[in-house]
Amino acid sequence: MEQYSLLGRIGEGAHGIVFKAKHIETGEVVALKKVALRKLEEGIPNQALREIKALREIEDNPHDLKPANLLISSTGLLKIADFGLARVFSNDRGRLYSHQVATRWYRAPELLYGARKYDEGVDLWAVGCIFGELLNGSPLFPAENDIEQLCCVLRTLGTPSPKTWPEITELPDYNKISFKEHRPLPPERIVPDTSPDALHLLMRFLVYPSYLRIRAAEALLHPYFFGEPLPAHHSELHIPHRGGRRSRQHQKEFHTEQLLSESLLDPGLVSGYLQGL
User: Fold this and answer.
1) Which listed residue (64, 119, 146, 266) is catalytic?
2) Angle 160-165-169 (CA atoms, 0-180°, nearest 5)?
3) Torsion of CA 98, 103, 105, 108, to 10 degrees
4) Is 64 an annotated catalytic residue?
């Protein structure tokens, strides 16, 4: 820690506090996570060790994808944060994983059915949930527990069957609970007032069989990204100002050492606002 100077607190979760810091020697700004060690004799928590391992092998992880974990820099660079619920994939096809791998609202249906073997399709489902949330302005599948979460998905996308999802019968929790039959809602009811291309892309993500979900490379070539409005260049992005401060464009600085006549507000700066009153 002596190599860094703390600049402030970024956020706090169940397993630690994240600080913004600067490396003293290089000036690089980084995020540091402080993990609480409740019982020193038990060592470092498994959650923290898993997160460190995930960061070291980031290219082969299913991530905990949700809007709160997606950070956009002032240059438009998207960064994925918080690997506390991430898992590292292995080439060992017989290896079992935990089904508690993502935040509930963005958890793929195979995970909700208790799957212990899965692939990058769980990330693609989460991407679809995030995309739908951006289009809709609210989460697609908000629920308080896993059973309600699965029910919420089924009410929207329809009840799956072995005919539409052959692998469902192999999932550990498939026969543990039954749901009322639901027909899928039309896409335009799931996300109203959305372009056909956006709806088509969304529904390519929200598919029950993991192997049928659209892959990332294919999604990037979808017509949605080539229609109006076109993606903005990073120089056109709105840059939020820290601490909720208003843009400098609409502010005037005042200095006590200046003469009063030199620090008066130019009426032209507010004339547009006064006309609208």
Assistant:
1) 64
2) 90
3) -30
4) yes
- Please, what sign has the CA dihedral across residues 229, 231, 235, 240? positive
Residues 55 and 82: their CA atoms lie apart, in Å, by: 9
Token pair of 172, please?
């550990």
Question: What pLDDT digit, counting tens, does each position of 17-53 carry?
Answer: 888 888 888 888 887 877 766 665 666 666 666 665 5
Contact 81, 69 (CB under 8 A): yes
Q: Considering the chain, what percentage of its residues have pLDDT values greater than 90?
A: 37
**159 burial type by CB count under 10 A (0-12 exposed, 13-18 middle, 19+ buried):** middle
Annotated binding residue 34? no
Span 128-180, pLDDT tens digits: 999 999 999 999 999 999 899 999 999 999 999 999 999 999 999 898 888 88
